[in-house]
Amino acid sequence: MLPTDMDQIDVRILDRDYRLAVPAEEKDRLLDAVRVVDDKMRAIRDAGRVAGLDRIAVMAALQLAHDLLGSRDAASTEAAPAADAARRIRRMTEELDAELRRQDSLF
Q1: Which residues touch 20 (CB under 8 Å, ≥6 apart)?
Q2: Cβ(39)–Cβ(13) below 8 Å
Q3: What CA–CA distance (Å, rounded) separates 87 from 26?
Q4: What's residue 91's pLDDT?
Q5: How far is CA 49 from the centre of its chain?
Q6: What is the rounded CA–CA span in Å between residue 89 and residue 63?
Q7: Of the candidates 18, 29, 47, 67, which lies 20 to 30 Å from 56 by C-alpha distance?
């Protein structure tokens, strides 16, 4: 029995049918994921380098995970300069505030 906020959907990946349970609000994203996995597995199968559904699935999973981790690393690398800039701005603000407090004490 599914929780009431879950839908059951039937999908086809590499000519095999699967029934999946998914929260209603996640259905479109899951269907997109199914298309990505199916496309990746078909590409591997059609290249003829890997035989057997289980091996094709593992190779597809590894390639997708590699892509995901590469994207995450790229985002992390891009975020580093912004984080550094934010730290520098915060430090300059603190120094300016300290100087303004020192100037106020002169008058």
Answers
A1: 8, 9, 10, 11, 30
A2: no
A3: 37
A4: 81
A5: 28
A6: 39
A7: 29
